[in-house]
Write a structure and sequence with these properties.
single chain, alpha+beta, 54% helix, 11% strand, four-stranded antiparallel beta sheet
Length: 181
């Protein structure tokens, strides 16, 4: 129509935000996005559980998450020659860990045999489940399901990998181990 006029989007601020304001907002939005992913896992799980029972719901959702994780792992590690625990962890943390690893704060420990353990201290998915009042048993189930992505991603690295997902009384979140051959 010829009498229409374009309006500025109300999403845009009146003045350009500082780099720090942008970074803080983007970090908060990224955190919220991962929490939304965690809530979506819960929704998928409960729909599947109500239709097929707990065990089948966990199996089906785990299978779907593994499929996505495998595709991500194949892309991430496709050109990684001679994988070592350090190279695999470095590749993941520098290319795939959001916000330079700050979204999933972690520490890295190295054993004398070269095994690396990544201890994840916080997970926004787990935070969302706690905020929503999920029971510790429900959170443990959801962590076990979500952890299937890690198994699939790192299964493509060429290393032996294991992960312990969170359980009640467990420090932080998941613990990932990368073992040299």
């Amino acid at each position: 129509m010829s009498d229409e006029r374009e309006l500025p989007s109300p999403a845009l601020p009146a003045t350009e935000p500082s780099a720090q304001e942008r970074a803080e907002r983007l970090a908060a939005e990224l955190d919220a996005s991962f929490k939304a992913r965690g809530r979506l896992y819960w929704d998928f799980y409960t729909v599947l559980r109500d239709a097929h029972g707990e065990a089948e719901a966990e199996r089906l959702l785990s299978a779907a998450i593994e499929t996505r994780g495998r595709a991500a792992g194949e892309a991430l590690f496709a050109d990684l020659d001679d994988p070592t625990p350090r190279r695999v962890v470095e590749r993941f943390l520098t290319r795939a860990s959001p916000d330079w690893g700050q979204l999933f704060p972690h520490s890295i420990r190295e054993a004398p045999d070269g095994t690396l353990r990544v201890l994840v201290r916080r997970c926004p998915l787990k935070d969302a489940w706690e905020e929503d009042g999920r029971t510790p048993a429900e959170i443990a189930t959801l962590c076990r399901i979500a952890n299937r992505a890690d198994h699939a991603v790192f299964g493509c690295s060429g290393l032996r990998f294991s992960a312990e997902s969170w359980t009640p009384g467990h420090e932080g979140c998941c613990h990932l181990s990368f073992v040299p051959d």
